[in-house]
Specification:
Number of domains: 2
Strand content: 5-15%
Helix content: 40-55%
Number of strands: 6
Structural class: alpha/beta
Order of helices and strands: HHHHHHHHEEEEHEHEH
Shape: elongated
């Protein structure tokens, strides 16, 4: 437990300082609308302002709310009206418990300001550490699948785009991070019966999170691949670890996604062997 705690404290100190500087430069957020462009063109502050509402707003949701294809600093600098619209959207959803002085149109007390900085820094640090741990888990999972295939006699090829099935790995071959058609797969495997198996590795830390990881990503890719290449030519697959809602698992399967668990990859190789021996 010591290493995760040390990582959290390290990240927390960084984000605490970012929020402290954000409040300092905007007079405790009261001057944020007038300094929209200047503030949001600082990438640290652009990231931090997403955590001013409660709950935080993702960049994707922000783009929808302000009706813009991008909220990158370069875009905001070229369009001051967009920057101000983004700030107005953020301030509309401002967490009034963390920033009570804004709703009450008064100056912040030292205690209120300190509490807001600590709470905001902690919120952002928790999210960042969770994301990093999930990415580390996904990378490790991809390597386990890779090692399992190699141990099972498969040959790894250099990554290359497969715009057609003829360009995909052949039977007994696979590649990492390959583009199949228009969507990228974590692994692309050539099955013994000449079908292609694009594999997505997914790690979910909660049942709610599983919707995004599985249904809104892997299952969507499965539908795209089956539509582009035919349901009899591809076997869209996900290797899962973590916590998933049963209903979400069933939904993903109904949309053409084959599921295996990372803790039991023998089931994956057993299924692949069943094709070879058929």
């Amino acid at each position: 437990m010591r290493e995760p705690l040390e990582k959290y404290l390290e990240v927390f100190e960084v984000y605490r300082d970012v929020f402290d500087e954000l409040l300092e430069s905007t007079v405790d957020l009261t001057g944020l609308p007038d300094k929209a462009v200047e503030t949001l063109c600082d990438k640290r502050f652009l990231e931090a302002v997403r955590y001013l509402p409660g709950p935080p707003i993702s960049f994707d949701d922000l783009k929808v709310l302000v009706d813009a294809p991008s909220v990158a600093p370069k875009t905001l600098k070229a369009d001051p009206a967009l920057a101000r619209r983004l700030v107005e959207t953020i301030m509309t959803g401002l967490d009034r418990r963390r920033f009570p002085w804004i709703a009450e149109s008064r100056e912040a007390t030292e205690q209120e300001r300190a509490s807001a900085v600590l709470a905001s820094g902690a919120m952002m640090a928790v999210k960042r550490v969770e994301t990093e741990r999930r990415n580390e888990g996904k990378t490790a999972q991809e390597q386990r699948v890779r090692d399992t295939l190699l141990a099972h006699g498969f040959t790894q090829l250099p990554a290359r785009p497969a715009r057609t099935l003829a360009e995909a790995p052949g039977p007994g071959q696979f590649c990492m991070e390959c583009l199949l058609g228009t969507r990228k797969a974590d692994l692309l495997v050539g099955l013994w019966d000449h079908r292609v198996m694009p594999i997505e590795c997914k790690v979910s830390n909660s049942a709610t999170n599983s919707i995004k990881r599985l249904n809104n990503d892997a299952a969507v890719k499965a539908e795209t691949w089956r539509k582009d290449f035919g349901s009899t030519q591809v076997v869209p697959t996900a290797v899962l670890s973590g916590v998933y809602n049963l209903r979400n698992l069933e939904d993903a399967q109904s949309r053409g996604l084959t599921l295996f668990w990372a803790h039991s990859l023998v089931e994956l190789t057993r299924w692949i062997d069943s094709i070879k021996n058929a």
